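Contributing: when you submit paired examples, paste them exactly as shown. First protein:
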Amino acid sequence: MNAIYADQAATSFPKAEGVSEAITKYLLSNGKNIGRGGYQSAYETANLVYDVREKLCRLFDFDKPSNVVFTANITYAINMIIKGFLKEGDHVLVSSMEHNAVMRPLVQLANEKQVEFSRIPCNSFGELCVEKVEGMIKKNTKAIIMLHASNVSGTVMPIEKVGKIAKKNGLFFIVDSAQTAGVIPISMKEMKIDALTFTGHKGLLGPQGIGGFLITDQLANQLTPLVSGGTGSMSDSEEIPDFLPDRFEAGTLNLPGIIGLGEALSYLEQTGINHIYQHEMELTKYFLEGVKKIPSFQIIGHEDISNRTAVVSLQWKKGDEALLAFELDHSYGIMTRVGMHCAPNAHKTLGTFPKGTIRFSFGHKNKKEEIEEILAVLTKVRC
């Protein structure tokens, strides 16, 4: 029995070619910190890190490598922005499809600091009702915070349209790119994005434990650091540095993670994200067409590949999706994700709460033969 990994929306596997080798090479042949030593190998590491900042700028159409901030993951990045920016009495807009990486910090602030949020409604396919956005803006609205694509239905949000609305109304626009970075082209300039949060281990095909955000000066100037400490700069002062990225990068960075991410970004540059997206959509189309022929499954969201990523949620009409996921794994080696996917309101929007769904998600190394095998199993599985 060959294992089939169909949970790429949780983390990519396998990683991009060269990632593990780059991390090992750094740990064995250099391994030095940055900003903490005046020797040559420390400067070499600093150059490698700056190179990764530049690669991220190229990928996301952004001009300031110094405004690329590394964090432990995208959840940490979102928390740094939300909690560092919003004050008592502020109001923000989010979609009804948001992940808990956005919603839990907002709910926490709503409970502690009287920060308000309103949910822009989405339809039963997870599509944003963009025509409602402007009418929901209040006098105290400070920002629109939105995921680029749903981790439940795969639906892609009209980010460029929302960005223009935000800019027109003097609002900051903060985007969660967890499901799209490295898969769908993102231009911070064209989409009017003030802060783009990212994770390294999904579509960017890097290791876990590295994420961050790219941020405009305008928003950065209004952001209070969530964590402070040593930066290796201005060490004669106990004040937090006032320049980026040091202002938001206290403590030792995950340098192996950054080096691995840099190698993954090189792979993406060489391969082309459009090529990867096309491959993933071909697999998704084949999967959707096959599932439609199986009466015991209902596709959640669009039944075609328009306006989506390679994420497909299903409900099983014959029983419990959790039992199905267990059976797929233990009897057939097919790995999926089942439940609420850390997005309960998305499931309410899609009409799948509280039952949840079983989610299949495909990546750059999945093959058509694997999709065929999954479909064959879904046709006969009974639990």
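Second protein:
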Amino acid sequence: MASRAATRVTTSYAAVRDRVAAACRRAGRAADTVRLVAVSKGMTAKALRAAANEGARDFGENYVQEWQAKRDAIADVAAVSWHFIGRIQRNKAAAIAEFGLVHSVADVRAARVLDVAAERRGAPLCVLLQVNLAAESTKGGVAAADLPSLLDSARRLSWVRVLGLMTIPPPFAPEAVRPLFAALRTLRDRQEEPQGLPELSMGMSADFEVAIEEGATLVRVGTAIFGPRKEVT
């Protein structure tokens, strides 16, 4: 019998999935154009398994050691895709290169570090470039004006594959951050060969529906699925 905590997770995941589908309908989009990434940092492997039992297959993690333990604990769950959403450290690059998608490439140094790690692993690594649209000093990310240079540099690397952009807006009300989501989409569309940047990772528990309405293809939802988390450092 499932525990009460596991039941809460499965119920919450299903509710968020329904909200994603409803937001897609409002935006005139098919539900399968948005991937729901369950941000599981600070959560137990049991919580991840509960979400997986409801169909979750995309999980977002910030910390390599925590991720490795969870990956091993749910290794029997088929077709799981792991998303790295934390800060990129050189000494963790080899492990980060094992993720299916890295959302947080904020500068050329990080791109090059991951390129080397991917080459050593012998497999291309898919990444997103993080853009700091609100110019917040506490958050990483390239300034919008500097994105073309970073994109050009990253595209010249041999083992990194840039698939799109990511942003983390300030913790404002959903309608207050809508312009930032729209700005990320516009910024993507203005780059050279924008068709090569299909992914927009934007929107979290408080604002993912607005992000979908503005073009998000990946939403990163933690609290609305798992409840409050205890940070693991």
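If you have annotations for the second protein, write them as plain sentences, like these:
The chain is about 40% helix and 15% strand.
The two ends are 32 Å apart (CA to CA).
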